[in-house]
Amino acid sequence: MSARKIIIDTDPGQDDAVAILLALASPELDVLGITAVAGNVPLPLTQKNALIVCELAGRTDIAVYAGCDAPMGRKLVTAEHVHGKTGLDGPQLPTPQMALHDGHAVDFIIETLRREDPGTVTLCPLGPLTNIATAFERAPDIVDRVQEIVLMGGAYFQVGNITPAAEFNIYVDPEAADIVFKSGIRLVVMPLDVTHKALTTAPRVEAFRAMGTEPGRMVAEWTDFFERFDKEKYGSAGAPLHDPCVIAYLLEPDLFTGRHVNVVIETGSELTLGMTVADWWRVTDRAPNAMFMGDLDADGFFALLTERIARL
Length: 312
Ligand code: RIB
Ligand code: CA
Fold this sequence. Notes:
CATH topology: Inosine-uridine Nucleoside N-ribohydrolase, Chain A
Mean pLDDT: 97
Number of strands: 10
Radius of gyration: 18 Å
Bound molecules: alpha-D-ribofuranose, calcium ion
Strand content: 15-25%
Low-confidence stretches: none
Structural class: alpha/beta
Number of helices: 12
CATH superfamily: Ribonucleoside hydrolase-like
CATH class: Alpha Beta
Strand order of the largest sheet: 3-2-1-4-5-6-10-7
Distance between the termini: 22 Å
CATH architecture: Alpha-Beta Complex
Order of helices and strands: EHEHEHHEHEHHEHHHHEEEEH
């Protein structure tokens, strides 16, 4: 069976970095390119961090593109308070030797979807949806050519992490999220409801450190840094590995359970801006537009993640 073609759109971010490593360690996936977007930290850092992660995986062949440096119609909100000033705080970071690929990420997304056979490319957004929505607005013809979108974003029972109502990726660019959730494309959503169950407990972090490899050490040290915020805020037993849930779903979808429901993005109210209004109990006649995940087999998830990272 041929490898599944994917584009990873990302704002590294320690959890983005682990997701990228998981994808690059998995032969079932053909990463056509990585597109950086402003989010956790400004674009100059997210693009640089994407290069660092590709080199850490020994994959200097991967095409990394710089994308949008601000949301479609708002000022950028970043999350240094979670990810640190570099976006990848924790270990000492190398200066990347590989260069960004020429061209803008949005053009790469458009050109790739026009080149590849319809229905054969999956988009994997791990940050704000600015690049994806900008591509759809600039080239509406590509929307029907997307196989599926599997994204990390939103929340329902877990409510917000950047405001009381909204999750960060959706909050940063709610207009972009609205375009994506109304696109009609098959959508699988990994909200905080499921990612908050993918916690890096101490034994799980030690399994990375015990690998004795550079990727294992970096993942452990990223997690050591990244988890302090969530442990303090939620009193949780570790950090939620949000973005790797997207890649794990592509590899082992049965690790996840959820519901196909209607999800609408709040773009009008300042109070609830960016909220993913999920009709989980189907109390409206709004048509379902997203497979909204609510649970995962956390031990199975970490077994997959650990086995794959150890391959690097
Ligand atoms: O809210 C969690 C999401 O925001 C994750 O993708 C994290 O990397 C940040 O982008
Ligand atoms: Ca992210």
